[in-house]
Amino acid sequence: MQNSSREVIINHNSEKLFNIVLDLENYPDFIPWCSSMTVHSRSNSEIFADMYVKYKFMIAYKFASHVIFDSKKLEIQTNYIEGPLKDLKTKWLFQSLDKNITLIKFSVNFEFKSFINQKIAETFYPLIENKMIESFRLRANTILN
Fold it and tell me: Which CATH homologous superfamily contains domain 2-144?
């Protein structure tokens, strides 16, 4: 299983950043590999959704997830339901350092069903993670500036 934890500081309000990450319906607009997103249900603390991921020259893969969030703690957890992985868990925590400065703690654990896909993902994961975090940062800058 691949594990990763990151901390980044972003110069925006923590609640607004939290809401950008929860805005799943708009992921195809700013996450490069997200070709579409279907939200099946949403409540005050959870979302069930399918994200379709497409890389160059490859077929789209569906990643079904159960997202659990706490608006008071500014915490988001994603639990994998179905797709090409054995398992996937993510966790986001947004800590306000100042009115418009947020420390984001992000962690991910994943394992593909296929050994070859796992090794490819492990090789490229740092690039994918950097691109994902940068995509959220750019989205925040676009919406909040």
Answer: START domain (3.30.530.20)
